[in-house]
């Protein structure tokens, strides 16, 4: 629940215990802006703040499903300069993400990892109940492949953000969000599933 600003204090607490962590970040946006409306803490800035505070192991950050409009000719430059792997939505279209997640597991290794999932990473056809929808996103099946592909990682926390039920009269966004959170719980270390 909440907007993506909530991830910033969570990662402060996680890093206090584990040191800089890897990040599997699913989103339509990189959330690495510097300011919005004059504010440095905003749902479009949390991962820049995390980089500035040394909360992330930047060589182990992957952002999946990134797309949408921008005010910058190279909106992903900052992320790449930090060493993030940016996987654009168009690189995911019409295919399974199982091979991608095999690469991500190798990249993350056995060090601590945090999963942060913005519901707008999914196409608004499936999850319209969010404040900043962007067309041509991931499918629910791809979302499951990403989360299930994290099984075996040293996951120290996770979140699912930006669900806004009032924007979805069908209730499908909340249903999808709840199921994705359940899937995240199932891939936590030492959780036994049938």
* Overall pLDDT metric: 96
Euclidean distance between termini CA atoms: 28 Å
Strand content: 15-25%
Number of domains: 1
- Order of strands across the main sheet: 3-2-1-4-5
Work out the helix count. Answer: 6
Shape: globular
For the largest beta-sheet, the strand count, sense and barrel status come to: 5 strands, parallel
The CATH topology assignment is Arginase, Chain A
- Radius of gyration equals 15 Å
**Secondary structural class:** alpha/beta
Please count the beta strands (DSSP E, at least 2 residues each): 5
Could you give the order of the helices and strands? HEHEHEHEHEH
- CATH superfamily caption: Ureohydrolase domain
* Shape-level CATH architecture: 3-Layer(aba) Sandwich
Low-confidence stretches: none
CATH class, named Alpha Beta
Q: What is the helix fraction of residues, given as a range?
A: 25-40%
GO molecular function: agmatinase activity; metal ion binding
GO biological process, one term: putrescine biosynthetic process from arginine, via agmatine
Organism: Herpetotheres cachinnans
Protein name: SPEB protein
Protein traits:
single chain, alpha/beta, five-stranded parallel sheet, Arginase, Chain A, 194 residues
Furnish the topology, listing elements before pairings.
Elements lengths: L6 H12 L2 E6 L19 H7 L3 E11 L10 H6 L2 E4 L9 H11 L3 E7 L21 H9 L5 E8 L10 H15 L8
Helix pairs in contact: 1-2, 5-6
What would a concise description of this structure say?
With 194 residues, the chain is an alpha/beta fold.
């Amino acid at each position: 629940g909440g907007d993506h600003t909530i991830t910033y204090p969570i990662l402060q607490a996680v890093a206090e215990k584990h040191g800089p962590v890897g990040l599997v970040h699913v989103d339509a946006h990189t959330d690495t802006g510097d300011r919005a409306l004059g504010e440095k803490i905003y749902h479009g800035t949390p991962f820049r703040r995390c980089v500035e505070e040394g909360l992330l192991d930047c060589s182990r950050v992957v952002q999946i499903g990134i797309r949408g409009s921008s005010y910058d000719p190279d909106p992903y430059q900052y992320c790449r300069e930090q060493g993030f792997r940016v996987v654009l939505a168009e690189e995911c279209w019409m295919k399974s993400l199982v091979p991608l997640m095999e690469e991500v597991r190798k990249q993350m290794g056995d060090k601590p990892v945090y999963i942060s999932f913005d519901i707008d990473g999914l196409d608004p056809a499936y999850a319209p109940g969010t404040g900043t929808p962007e067309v041509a996103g991931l499918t629910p099946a791809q979302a499951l492949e990403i989360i299930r592909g994290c099984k075996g990682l040293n996951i120290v926390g996770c979140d699912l953000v930006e669900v806004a039920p009032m924007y979805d009269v069908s209730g499908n966004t909340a249903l999808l969000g709840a199921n994705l959170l359940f899937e995240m719980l199932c891939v936590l270390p030492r959780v036994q599933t049938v």
